[in-house]
Amino acid sequence: MNPDIRLILDLQDLDQRISAVQKEIAALPKHVAVIEKVLDSHNRRLEADRAALSGNQKERKRLDSEIQVQQQKISKLREQMLGAKNNEQYRAFQNEIDFCEKEIKRFEDRIIELMAESEPLDKAVKVAESALKKEKDHVDAEKKVAVQKTDADKKILDDLMVQRKVVTDQVKVPLLREYLRIQKKWKTTTVATDANGGRCTACNMSLRPQFLQDLRKDDQVMHCESCGRFLYFQPTVVIDEQGAAVGTRAEPEGRPLPIRRM
Question: What is the pTM (predicted TM-score) of this model?
């Protein structure tokens, strides 16, 4: 293989690995953000359950206070009844007392309802607290793994960048410019393509017979006439019955030959 193409292939391989590691490093914070969002939903659920339970308890206390107020009114009314001068005044005091007693009964009934409602609310709070603790433990563990993975990936990335520098130092400047231009154009690091079968394997366009013949000579760096990517020729590998490569076979007139079993 042409040594320039070999370097381009090495550079491509390194760039693909660098890109994969960079994507993984970028994905880890997003992964942590997703699980933290789940944790936040557990927090909100717990806050809502606690608020509901707290509201229930406050309402019961308020009703208890209302009952005390009505009981105090009844006590005063009973004292005033002793000084009633006629039946009309007595009945008026009694009506007031009856109203207060009805209010007390209404408040007591509502307190009983609230007490019945508080049991599932209290249970919901305990369940939410347990779920929150489990989710928090999970998030903490995931964060720890993410930090460790990020640190490991950064070390891998640093090593790959060193390797890339070694390769780029060997690539001719004009060729490196071409590589970067093609890479930018196609938004990918796959810039060196195998033209086996008489077609560019990147854009799948057929190659002219004369172009293919020149490509087979492997004495110069060539580009696909359609997409502009680097091209190199790789002959068909001949495989024996045991699956071992026993040689290669060129393709006549730019047409692909099937793999033959010996």
Answer: 0.64
